[in-house]
Amino acid sequence: MAGPDLSALPEILESRPADPSELLPLLTMIQGRWRHLPQEALRAVAARLSLPLARVFAVASFYRSLSFQPKGERLVQVCCGTACHLKGARAVAASLEKSLAVRMGATREDGRVTLESVNCVGACALAPVVMLDGTVHGKVSGPGAAGLRL
Amino acid sequence: MPGEPDSCAAGGGVPAGAALPGEAGAGSRPRLAEPLVEGTVDGVRVAVPRGATILEAARLCAIEIPTLCHHEGLPPEGSCRLCLSETRGSLAVSCMYPLRESGFAALTRSPAVLEARRYVLSLLVCRAPRAPRIRKLADEYGVSPDPRFMRDPDGCIRCGRCVRACRASGPEAIALCGRGFARLVTGPFGRPPEACVGCLACALACPTGKIAFSERDGVRRIWEREFELAPCPECGKRAFTREQLAFLGGGASALCHSCRRRLMARELGKAAALEAPGGPALLRAL
């Protein structure tokens, strides 16, 4: 199976110093570019930073914002933290599952949308909160979320 | 003799050059040049080099503190939490808590320590209920597994001793991956570790005996991989894998441990004979 086109990878790798402390920044950039961490990219990161592949994989597998499976082109994150939970995050999540036609924590088959829950985005005053491609939308209502089409 | 650091207080033993570039060696092992600090462990007076840990001070007093993740030759991690002791009115991890000034007073068997240790053990025994060392400790402390946490009793307590052993003396082929209940020791991508050289450092370091390996017909199996064992050029016994010898580099020889010792003794004997009066003539006669 042919992997993703990684021709942009060397430029990303060389944009940061070859220092082990650059591991997380590089992984974040790769996640942003390919919406997941291709195996070959992890190998290239390990070689670039002179780190054992096992340690690169350990870091990559620890963070929830990094993934090994490709995420959708659009990312919808429902905050299920304490404040959002009390303000009806569950209803918002249920509406989004219907309107976007994808289960919580999954990517739609056409690869367009990923819907996931997050624990707190630090905007509790705006609860319930939904993040759309990194932008916070506050005081979301269940019926309002039902109108979202992606 | 207080202050005469024995092997436990003297500067540790990760082999030279074992640390990765840009990293400190075996953590903060106390140096012999450090001034002594005095205090007590369970009321026993002791002096240790500044920076020594509570665990090291306790061992100088012949006071036993149970440990699982601790290993003399590896950087401390404090992950098993079994060695908890009490100092300055709160709990401390004995294997990592450095004694910096005189007047310390550590307690290793106070009610608070024993209660905390029992709780820690009740969690560890959920992960490795069949490991002999864990069972012995659980019996000793009268602890049974907490059914709420009996999720995946796979025999691994996630102490990371294998990972540290692989980092110190091997290629760091394995790591603790994932997080929470899903955390486990594995090779990259959850597959058999491709960088592994089959040296057994991980299996020998594991406190619960979780890492299985076998040797048959000159082949060693570990981490779902197979390694051919190179024959000792003297006796033919197979002690090291070819990958291990290649990893060690510099023409590392496949001599087994007993042949290595025997040859070294012969060389030392020759050198001694050469220095003795009439030695060279004697050697020629032999």
Give a quick rundown of the structure.
The complex is a heterodimer of chains A (150) and B (286). Chain A is an alpha+beta fold. Chain A contains seven helices and five strands; from the N terminus they run ααααβααββββα.
Can you tell me the residue ranges of chain A where pLDDT is under 50 for at least 5 consecutive residues?
A: none
Q: Per CATH, what is the topology of the largest domain in chain A?
A: Glutaredoxin
CATH topology of the largest domain in chain B, which one?
A: Ubiquitin-like (UB roll)
Main beta sheet strand tally, sense and closure of chain B: 4 strands, antiparallel
Helix content of chain B: 25-40%
Tell me which oligomeric state these chains represent: heterodimer
Q: What fraction, in percent, of the residue positions of chain A are helical?
A: 40-55%
How many helical elements of chain B? 8
Strand content of chain A: 5-15%
Structural account:
Chain A has 150 residues and is an alpha+beta fold. Chain A is built from 7 helices and 5 strands. A 5-stranded mixed β-sheet of chain A has the order 2-3-1-4-5, covered by helices on one side. Chain A is elongated. Chain B folds into 3 domains: 1-109, Ubiquitin-like (UB roll) (Roll), CATH 3.10.20; 111-157, no CATH class; 161-255, no CATH class. Helices cover 28% and strands 17% of the residues of chain B. Chain B contains 8 helices and 11 strands. In chain B, the strands form 4 sheets. Chain B has a 4-stranded antiparallel β-sheet. The longest helix of chain B has 19 residues, at 257-275. Chain A binds chain B through residues 20, 39, 42, 50, 52-58, 61-62, 68, and chain B through 21-22, 167, 171-179, 187-189, 193-195.
Question: What are the salient characteristics of this protein?
Answer:
heterodimer; A: 150 residues; alpha+beta; Glutaredoxin; 2 domains; five-stranded mixed beta sheet; 7 helices; B: 286 residues; Ubiquitin-like (UB roll); 3 domains; four-stranded antiparallel beta sheet; three-stranded mixed beta sheet; flat
